[in-house]
Amino acid sequence: MANTTARVTKSGKHYEVLVDLDEALKVSKGEGNINVAVLGDAVFHNLKSGERVSMDDLEINFGTNNFEEVAEKIIKSGEVVRTEASMKENQDKKYKQVVDFLVRNAISPEDRPYTPDRIMKALKEAHVNIKNKPIESQVEEILDQLGKVLPISVERKKVKLLIPAVHSGKAYGIVKEFMIKEDWKNNGDLEVLVEIPSGLVMDFYDKVNGATSGSVMSEEIK
Hints:
Hypothetical 12.0 Kda Protein In Nam8-gar1 Intergenic Region, Chain: A; Arc Repressor Mutant, subunit A; flat
């Protein structure tokens, strides 16, 4: 359990509460338990100096002076400050996800797989910036950076999809990550050509079928 600060600025004033990092992050996503997340029973303008916020100030800026309600508003509308250890843990987790994906899907120019250690070393050497979003949505960017120090490629498949008009809006957000061509039909149907790393094809189909209630038509292009 790591303690940290949740903070927000309102009307030019800072408001801070002491929180448990993991539980506060859950609360910020609409999960977790606010009573577990908050530590102590006071709101501060400056937690380190111990400058407490008055009840009247809380009422004016948060519409209540109830501590748990104010703390929850601070967590959800403000920032939960990540500790250095938690940021490193999160980054390490992202690196491992990338390594796992590339071990399964990437090959060398000699058509051989790379070991996890070799890929991890290359990621560090290339200073690859792994963003806090799904790996599949940043594969191309990662490969571009990684290619500077390691000759690597990922097998891909091209798939043509015909998405019924009634589902096109919901499905568009899924296909756009891999889309190389789109064609909107007069009736509102959407025909797209996507290129997907082979290791992501089944997951991609699951998502598209879920968004279209299974009504999408697909054809792999050789």
